[in-house]
Amino acid sequence: MAVRVAGLRLERGGRVILRDIDLSVPQGSVTAILGPSGCGKSTLLSAVTGELSPAAGTVEVFGQPVPQRRRELLELRKRIGVLLQGNGLLTDLTAAENVALPLRTHTDLPPAVVRQLVEMKLHAVGLRAAADLYPRELSGGMARRVALARAIALDPPLMIYDEPLTGLDPIASGVIMSLISRLNRTLGLTSLIVTHHVHETLPIADRAVVIANGGIVFDGTPAELQAGADPLVRQFLDGQPDGPIPFDAAPRTEAA
Fold first, then answer.
1. Is the dihedral of CA 40, 45, 47, 48 positive or negative?
2. Alpha helix (H) ranges present in the chain?
3. Strand ranges of the sheet holding 215-220, from the earlier edge strand across to the other edge
4. Whole-number pLDDT of residue 196
5. Tens of pLDDT along 4-41?
6. Which of 19, 68, 115, 222 reaches 20 to 30 Å from 34, CA-CA?
7. In Å, how far are 2, 18, 106, 121 from 41, measured between CA atoms?
8. For position 247, what pLDDT does the model report?
């Protein structure tokens, strides 16, 4: 398994965000982690990357527990590519310079090799011609693709996408989801996609996990998810305002 989570409880500020989380992500798969805003999807990612330590339970990446010591954690993070909601591009650097940043920071490769790798990564996302453009000169979809090229710069075996479609129009969203699927297949990646964009994500996913009310309420194939009759899952999939998932944020459980 690329990621294995067992008996996980996550807390922030003394409040329980997620509890009793058991999750296995097979290598080579695309797993969609779905749920309403504020349900704890991004918090779960924080545990996978080691940003947030579990209050209970375990998190393993590639068969090894996520380390607590900083040096070991940094080594693990080199194997995890992350596409952030806000792209995280540095505005004073060109697209090519943004993609080159992790290569220059974490490797001793000669400049000529870095340039060649950057060109390959930009080509992979269809933006080789935009290498010299600054983030302010890019559309939202183009900026997201540059951020994706940067995320795969070090050839990480695990990719994490945190709300990759935020702020994108339907065409740009389709381009991004197609890229995620193609890169996962051609590069042999494992992908975790955290999103509330159900209908755009399920067509490329091998598995779907739904989080609501502090726990996992569904874990199975996209076909099983869409065929399910559970009222909580149906409320989320169908966008119903009334149901077992409250519209207003419910008070978080106090940690014991």
1. positive
2. 41-48, 70-77, 95-106, 111-124, 140-151, 170-187, 198-201, 222-227, 231-238
3. 80-83, 158-162, 190-195, 30-34, 207-212, 215-220
4. 83
5. 999 999 998 888 999 999 999 999 999 999 988 778 88
6. 68
7. 18, 9, 28, 28
8. 56
